Structure formats: C-alpha cells, structure tokens
Amino acid sequence: MALHLVYGGTFDPIHNGHLAIACAARDALACTVHLMPTGDPPHRAPPGADGATRATMVALAIDGVPGLVLDRRELERQGRSYTVDTLAELRSEIGPSTPLAWLVGADSLLGLPGWHRWRDLFGLAHLVIAERPGSALDAELPAELAAALQNRWTREAADLQSQPAGRVLRLHQPLSHVSATAIRAQLSAGVPTGGQLPPAVAAFIHEKGLYGAAARAPL
Ligand code: ATP
C-alpha cells in the first residue's frame, strides 16, 4: 500500500526551503506529500499569520506542483493539536497496515523529546528527517533521543514501504538556509526576500500587507 507522508509545520510563511524538502521526500519515497499547517494556538493571537491565511499560502505554493497536497485537518480541529493525536487519527483512517510517515527538519527532531507523548509516535508512523544547516545530526544526540532512535535508523526507502511505522530515514537533500523567522524579519524591515518565497506567496504577502510587508515592495 502506498506510503502516506505528512509534512506538518507552521508554514508562517511557507518558503522555498519547505518546498525543497517536500519535493525531495516525494522523489525519494515515490509518494504524495500531505502538507499540514498547524492550527492557531488556543487563547492567544497567532504569532504571525492566522491558520486560514497560512493554509492559503500553502495552497498557492503547491499549486501546479505534482505530488504535493494540502491537509487542513489541524486547522479544522478545536483546541490544541498534538502530532501524536493527528497521527492516531490518520492511522485510524488508513488502517493498521498502510505505511505512514511524518517529515520533519533536523532541528525539530532534536526537540522531539519535548513533544507530547513523543515515544508513542514511533508506534504510529515512520519519521523522515530532512537535514538543516545548523542542526547536525552527526553530532551527539541527547541520550534519551539516541536510545529511542537506536535500531530504527534506515538508509533504505523500501523499509518505509514494507512496514507501517517505526523506522527513521535521513533525507539527503541539498541544504537550504531559508528560514521563516528570517523572512518575517526581512518583510517587516522592507528588505527584499529574493528567491526565498514562491512568487505567488510573495505576491499574496505584499497584497495583504502580511508580516508588516509594504504593498508593492520589491519581491
Ligand atoms: P523557522 O525558520 O523560524 O525555524 P520553520 O520554517 O522551521 O521556522 P515550520 O514552518 O514549522 O518552521 O517548519 C516546518 C518544518 O520544516 C520543520 O520541521 C522545520 O524543521 C522544517 N524546515 C523549515 N525550514 C527548513 C530548511 N531550510 N531546511 C530543512 N528543514 C526545514
């Protein structure tokens, strides 16, 4: 059965670094990538753009890109969405034997022990780790993370197709230094963002004046 691959993120805004790793995972694993923007944090204003706006930017970014689709489920849920709950919901939809995988950047992997019920993730899905500048996977991982990952690492994409969950694959894609935090700072300072954003996303941001961006500022 085809691997179901989810790429969750704030996407505030989605940028070319996100698109590059989504496409690299799609190609390495020969599957569709489901981009899933996080919902808004309950009881406080979203830090950047709200969920509906972030999802609109994801839709603009992937328009016409084969193998990338938008999954809005975390935006439609009330209250806080934990990854473990989202994966459990997906698991119940696709059944026990369809392979399921969650794509994250290396910086997110290092923070995994802080995630709600993080050890349960491995029973629900595979992890696909995209390398990110500044987050060295080769450096020593925190002991509890290293122990949890031991015996799960694989270099073979086929291992993610032949088992439903529990393996960890390192994605070797060209490194991208693009960062949403840096892009937001550039937009609010009126600094051109160059080729970091998909053109339709950059145009939308300027049209709506998101992140303090000036209308019709240089892209
Ligand atoms: P920031 O740039 O402020 O750290 P972010 O882009 O990492 O924000 P998210 O939108 O939540 O924030 O990122 C979604 C996922 O994409 C995360 O797992 C993150 O690690 C990964 N990611 C984002 N940018 C890159 C990149 N340039 N290379 C590899 N992974 C990335």
From TrEMBL:
Name the keywords, alphabetized: ATP-binding, NAD, Nucleotide-binding, Nucleotidyltransferase, Pyridine nucleotide biosynthesis, Transferase
Q: What is its EC number?
A: 2.7.7.18
> What InterPro entries does the annotation carry?
Cyt_trans-like, NadD/NMNAT, Rossmann-like_a/b/a_fold
> Which GO molecular function terms does the record list?
nicotinate-nucleotide adenylyltransferase activity
The keyword Transferase is assigned to this record: yes
Q: Where is the Cytidyltransferase-like domain?
A: 6-185
The source's superkingdom equals: Bacteria
Q: Name one Pfam family in it.
A: CTP_transf_like
Question: Reaction catalysed?
Answer: nicotinate beta-D-ribonucleotide + ATP + H(+) = deamido-NAD(+) + diphosphate
Pathway noted in the entry: Cofactor biosynthesis; NAD(+) biosynthesis; deamido-NAD(+) from nicotinate D-ribonucleotide: step 1/1
Q: What class of enzyme is it?
A: transferase
Q: Which family does it belong to?
A: Belongs to the NadD family.
Protein role? Catalyzes the reversible adenylation of nicotinate mononucleotide (NaMN) to nicotinic acid adenine dinucleotide (NaAD).
Protein name (database record) = Probable nicotinate-nucleotide adenylyltransferase
- Which lineage ranks, top first, belong to the organism behind this chain? Bacteria, Pseudomonadati, Pseudomonadota, Gammaproteobacteria, Lysobacterales
